[in-house]
Design goal:
Strand content: 15-25%
Radius of gyration: 29 Å
Largest sheet: 8 strands, mixed
Number of strands: 23
CATH architecture of the largest domain: 3-Layer(aba) Sandwich
Distance between the termini: 67 Å
Bound molecules: zinc ion
CATH class of the largest domain: Alpha Beta
CATH superfamily of the largest domain: P-loop containing nucleotide triphosphate hydrolases
CATH topology of the largest domain: Rossmann fold
Number of helices: 18
Structural class: alpha/beta
């Protein structure tokens, strides 16, 4: 029989002074010491701790712990109780249901290990509370926040509703476990009240209610999917406990209907519809089955579960305006290497739908090119405004290597600065890693240059800052030189928000093609009146070739992955002066003419010695993330005060 161990803590005066320590325990002393040390932060031993109570739940290796702490009024009046057990027994749900815990305080102060019969007798069911309209509304914001990033810490202001809110959250998130190989990332940890100036760190999905934290709000990118999940949760009541004030037509409390778009409030501020309000829309089939039927031509279901809001998104490839919610959905089938219609069965559970939508695509048909179509990740249109970045450079600029190194470093090190990113199109991203990043970094291979005549979507990411709406970023490779004659390049410039101009350090001042590439791009932007809207990062690539030149030497070994407005300004000024002194004024034009711009010392490969299509000294990328971070700052994807000062 699995039991939960207990430890009780209190303040005691010893010879050496006051100490907060264990008073009684069901574990051996050594184990108690170990736990006390490990959980010091969560026992909150500050003598002046705030009054009230809080609960912490977390998993440390293979043991779950639940701390209940209470501070009545005076200094050193705090008490804490600790439950320890295997995570399969001491689940977040059990912890939340045991929170009252007053039964531990009685008797002679002796503690006993707790068996399931004891815990069962003291559980307080939160089903009904968790379905209170106010809780459901907050649950939408919490789910939305959760969906916008892959786990991590979620901070929100303290609320009386913390327990039912966490309970509902756990019930919904628990259903996601199947689609994630790393289950521990989904292992919920929580703290119901925190007012420490320096909160301790806890890895994984950690929801904490922190004094002074801003509200999550409801205007989030994932509200639509979050609403679906919460409405689904609200409808499913196991044990048939009726929700207060809500009648269930026909008694069918668990009928897996999909809330109709029309039944959902149009405004993100409006509350979640009560379950009874969600009715099956007329004309929608009760269930859809594809088994046994011959494979139809792609006539996918309308994105019935897509948001109701009339979202219009401009396709970054062909500039068509797409009514995102009305588009048929597709999925990529790796077996046949093609896209097929995505059929969401009407009886799919909310988590199943959410998972399907996360990997879904929409198809865009270029009206100007007969029969030409392309696919975009559905998620691209489901977040904040997308940012479109292009890489501009002549054929020998090392642009392809820079792009490869950037995505490789992004994969390896992330963006840093508390900014998260996730690939939007996992298959495309993985293919890029396999075909370019891995040969470049692992085998030091020279990567083939961009094919002539192409403007290609290379990769796309969802970038999110803590507490802000996530935004998609699409990275395009714009082929160099005279290729700008082609229509697709011109069109691309009508939608680009940021450009990375790649200068080959070896060609400074005598690369006419490079000069022309930059000039053409700037003239096209000027012609369309977009020059004041586009930011630029000018990259002096292959800087290893000039790394002993003043002032390049100063920057070549400076750190990457930093956002420092003052350093950025100095670096920009130095590179500008360097290019100017070498008669390479064409390269500095973006700096003079674009909305905001920075200049950077970069080396994608670290050396230029190539024999037999291999970098013989290996590949060591230098400072490839800084231009990307700077561009993200200049285009408003990064919003910190420092980020706002980047670019002149
Ligand atoms: Zn398109």
């Amino acid at each position: 029989m699995t039991v939960l161990h207990q430890v009780a803590y209190t303040w005691r005066e010893k010879h050496s002074g006051w100490a907060f320590g264990p008073r009684a325990a069901t574990l051996p002393d050594r184990a108690v010491l170990r736990w006390t040390e490990r959980l010091g932060d969560w026992l909150r031993t500050d003598p002046n701790g705030s009054t009230g109570y809080n609960h912490f739940y977390g998993v440390f290796r293979n043991e779950a712990v639940f701390v209940r702490r209470i501070q009545r009024h005076k200094v050193r009046s705090a008490k804490a109780w600790l439950l320890i057990g295997p995570p399969t027994t001491l689940t977040p749900r059990l912890a939340l249901e045991l929170r009252e815990w007053s039964w531990l305080e009685g008797g002679d102060g002796r503690l006993l290990p707790l068996g399931p019969d004891v815990t069962a007798a003291h559980r307080r069911d939160l089903q009904a509370e968790a379905r209170h309209p106010e809780v459901l509304e907050r649950l939408v914001a919490l789910m939305s926040r959760f969906l916008s990033g892959a786990g991590g810490s979620i901070v929100l202001p303290p609320t009386e509703l913390a327990y039912p809110l966490l309970w509902g959250f756990q019930e919904i998130v628990g259903g996601f476990a199947v689609d994630e190989p790393s289950v521990d990332r989904r292992q919920l940890a929580f703290e119901t009240f925190d007012d420490r100036t320096r909160p301790p760190f806890h890895p994984g999905l950690f929801v904490r209610f922190r004094k002074g934290a801003p509200d999550l709000g409801t205007d989030h990118a994932h509200d639509d999917i979050a609403r679906l999940l919460v409405a689904d949760f609200a409808r499913k009541i196991d044990g048939a406990i009726p929700m207060p004030g809500v009648s269930h037509p026909g008694g069918g409390a668990t009928e897996p209907t999909v809330p109709d778009a029309a039944a959902r409030p149009a405004s993100p501020e409006a509350p979640v519809p009560e379950p009874a309000a969600a009715t099956r829309p007329p004309g929608r089939p009760a269930a859809r089955t594809t088994s046994g039927a011959p494979m139809p031509p792609p006539t996918p279901s309308r994105s019935a579960d897509a948001p109701a809001r009339g979202r219009e998104v401009i396709c970054p490839i062909c500039l068509s305006t797409l009514a995102w919610n009305d588009l048929p959905l597709y999925r990529y089938n790796p077996d046949i290497g093609d896209y097929t219609g995505l059929d969401l069965p009407a009886d799919a559970s909310a988590p199943q739908r959410a998972v399907a939508l996360r990997t879904a695509f929409v198809r865009c048909t270029d009206p100007r090119e007969q029969g030409s179509s392309h696919y975009l990740p559905f998620a691209y249109g489901m977040h904040g405004p997308p940012a479109v970045f292009g890489f501009v450079g002549a054929t020998r600029s090392g642009k392809t290597h820079l792009l490869t190194a950037m995505i490789g470093q992004l994969e390896k090190r992330g963006l840093g600065l508390g900014v998260r990113h996730a690939a939007l199109d996992k298959a495309r991203h993985q293919a890029f890693l396999n075909e370019q990043v891995s040969p470049f970094f692992n085998r030091s291979e020279v990567i083939e240059q961009t094919r002539a005549g192409t403007v290609g979507l290379v990769d796309s990411f969802l970038v999110s800052e803590e507490g802000r709406e996530a935004r998609p970023v699409a990275l395009f490779d714009v082929a160099g030189g005279d290729l700008l004659e082609i229509e697709s390049a011109r069109r691309f410039l009508d939608v680009a928000d940021g450009l990375i101009f790649v200068v080959n350090a070896a060609e400074i001042g005598h690369d006419e093609l490079g000069d022309r590439t930059f000039g053409t791009v700037l003239e096209l932007l000027q012609g369309s009146g977009r020059l004041p809207e586009v930011s630029a990062a000018v990259v002096l690539n292959k800087a290893d070739l000039v790394r002993f030149d003043e002032p390049i030497v100063r920057w070549f070994r400076s750190p990457d992955q930093v956002l420092d407005a003052e350093a950025s300004l100095r670096e920009s000024a130095d590179v500008y002066a360097y290019l100017h002194s070498r008669g390479a004024d064409a390269w500095t034009r973006p700096y003079r003419e674009c909305r905001k711009a920075t200049l950077h010392v970069v080396s994608a490969a670290g050396s230029d010695a190539v024999v037999d299509k291999t970098f013989v000294r290996g590949v060591t990328s230098r400072r490839v993330l800084n231009p990307l971070l700077a561009l993200m700052a200049m285009t408003g994807l990064l919003t910190s005060p420092e980020a706002q000062k980047i670019g002149v």
